[in-house]
C-alpha cells in the first residue's frame, strides 16, 4: 500500500511539473540597488477628444461661482445682486465632453479649445478667461477626468479596457492590473500605441531595462493601447521542445517506477 501511495504521488508531481509554464524573465534587471533613478514628478495627463472633464469653479464669494458650475441649467440674479441656481437646474453629473473639434461648451465663457492641453493648462485657460471678463478675481478651478481609460492586449493575464481613479498610472502598473505578463510574453517587445496630433504612434519598450523610466509612455495617457507581443518562431520551438522533453521524461520515470513496484 505504501508503494502504491508513493507511486501515485510521484506520478502526480511529475505530471504537474511537466505542465508548468516557465517564466524566466526579470523586470528591470539592470537596475542597481541603492542607485537613484530620477523620474518626472510634473507629469500631467493631456486632454483628448471624447474625454469627460469634471470642472469646478470656486471663489471667496461663492455666489459669483454659481454660473460657472451649471451644466444645461439656468441661474437667477436677485435684486440685491445675489446669484442663485434655478430649482430646475440640471447639475453637471457627467462632466464636460470634449467634442470632435477638441472643444468644450463651458457656461458663460462659451466654447473653449482644450484638446492637446494638459490639465494644468486647461485650468489656467479657464482662470484667465474668467478674470479677463471681470466675472471674479482669483477664481479657483479644479479639473478631474471622469473617464480615464486604457487598453491592454496580448500576452497578459487578462485582456481588456481598464479605468483609472484620477489621471496617473504607469506602464508597469497597467501590466500588473492586467494580471502581469504570461510565460509566452516577449518582455522586450511591449508596445504602447498612442494618439498624437491626430495620428497614432507606437513606442516599443524592453521591460528588462531601466530605459523604460525615460519613455514618454512610462505614464500612460488617456486611450493608450498597451500590446505585449507573444514569442514567435524560435522561442515557440524552444518552449515546445522543453514541454515535449519534460513530458517524455515524466512518462519514462513513471514507467520505471511502475515496473519497480510490480517487481
Automatic annotation (TrEMBL):
<keyword id="KW-0406">Ion transport</keyword>
<keyword id="KW-0449">Lipoprotein</keyword>
<keyword id="KW-1134">Transmembrane beta strand</keyword>
<keyword id="KW-0762">Sugar transport</keyword>
<dbReference type="GO" id="GO:0015159">
    <property type="term" value="F:polysaccharide transmembrane transporter activity"/>
</dbReference>
<keyword id="KW-0813">Transport</keyword>
<dbReference type="Pfam" id="PF22461">
    <property type="entry name" value="SLBB_2"/>
</dbReference>
<protein>
    <submittedName>
        <fullName>Polysaccharide biosynthesis/export family protein</fullName>
    </submittedName>
</protein>
<comment type="similarity">
    <text>Belongs to the BexD/CtrA/VexA family.</text>
</comment>
<dbReference type="GO" id="GO:0006811">
    <property type="term" value="P:monoatomic ion transport"/>
</dbReference>
<dbReference type="GO" id="GO:0046930">
    <property type="term" value="C:pore complex"/>
</dbReference>
<keyword id="KW-1133">Transmembrane helix</keyword>
<dbReference type="GO" id="GO:0009279">
    <property type="term" value="C:cell outer membrane"/>
</dbReference>
<keyword id="KW-0564">Palmitate</keyword>
<dbReference type="Pfam" id="PF02563">
    <property type="entry name" value="Poly_export"/>
</dbReference>
<keyword id="KW-0625">Polysaccharide transport</keyword>
<dbReference type="InterPro" id="IPR049712">
    <property type="entry name" value="Poly_export"/>
</dbReference>
<feature type="signal peptide">
    <location>
        <begin position="1"/>
        <end position="22"/>
    </location>
</feature>
<keyword id="KW-0626">Porin</keyword>
<feature type="transmembrane region" description="Helical">
    <location>
        <begin position="241"/>
        <end position="262"/>
    </location>
</feature>
<keyword id="KW-0998">Cell outer membrane</keyword>
<dbReference type="InterPro" id="IPR003715">
    <property type="entry name" value="Poly_export_N"/>
</dbReference>
<feature type="domain" description="SLBB">
    <location>
        <begin position="150"/>
        <end position="228"/>
    </location>
</feature>
<dbReference type="GO" id="GO:0015288">
    <property type="term" value="F:porin activity"/>
</dbReference>
<feature type="domain" description="Polysaccharide export protein N-terminal">
    <location>
        <begin position="42"/>
        <end position="144"/>
    </location>
</feature>
<keyword id="KW-0472">Membrane</keyword>
<keyword id="KW-0812">Transmembrane</keyword>
<keyword id="KW-0732">Signal</keyword>
<dbReference type="InterPro" id="IPR054765">
    <property type="entry name" value="SLBB_dom"/>
</dbReference>
Amino acid at each position: 500500500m505504501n508503494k502504491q501511495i508513493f507511486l501515485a504521488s510521484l506520478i502526480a508531481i511529475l505530471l504537474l511539473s511537466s505542465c508548468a509554464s516557465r517564466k524566466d524573465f526579470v523586470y528591470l534587471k539592470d537596475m542597481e540597488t541603492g542607485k537613484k533613478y530620477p523620474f518626472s514628478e510634473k507629469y500631467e495627463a493631456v486632454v483628448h477628444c471624447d474625454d469627460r472633464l469634471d470642472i469646478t469653479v470656486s471663489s471667496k464669494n461663492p455666489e459669483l461661482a454659481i454660473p460657472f458650475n451649471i451644466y444645461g441649467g439656468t441661474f437667477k440674479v436677485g435684486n440685491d445682486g445675489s446669484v442663485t441656481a434655478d430649482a430646475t437646474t440640471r447639475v453637471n453629473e457627467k462632466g464636460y465632453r470634449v467634442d470632435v473639434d477638441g472643444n468644450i461648451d463651458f457656461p458663460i465663457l462659451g466654447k473653449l479649445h482644450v484638446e492637446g492641453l494638459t490639465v494644468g493648462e486647461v485650468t489656467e485657460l479657464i482662470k484667465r478667461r474668467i478674470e479677463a471678463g471681470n466675472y471674479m478675481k482669483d477664481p479657483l478651478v479644479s479639473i478631474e477626468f471622469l473617464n480615464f481609460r486604457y487598453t491592454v492586449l496580448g500576452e497578459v493575464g487578462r485582456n481588456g479596457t481598464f479605468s483609472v481613479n484620477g489621471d496617473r498610472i504607469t506602464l508597469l502598473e497597467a501590466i500588473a492590473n492586467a494580471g502581469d505578463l504570461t510565460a509566452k510574453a516577449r518582455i522586450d517587445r511591449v508596445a504602447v500605441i498612442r494618439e498624437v496630433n491626430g495620428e497614432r504612434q507606437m513606442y516599443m519598450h524592453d521591460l528588462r531595462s531601466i530605459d523604460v523610466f525615460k519613455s514618454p509612455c512610462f505614464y500612460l495617457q488617456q486611450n493608450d493601447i498597451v500590446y505585449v507581443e507573444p514569442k514567435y518562431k524560435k522561442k515557440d520551438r524552444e518552449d515546445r521542445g522543453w514541454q515535449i522533453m519534460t513530458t517524455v521524461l515524466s512518462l519514462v520515470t513513471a514507467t520505471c517506477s511502475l515496473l519497480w513496484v510490480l517487481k
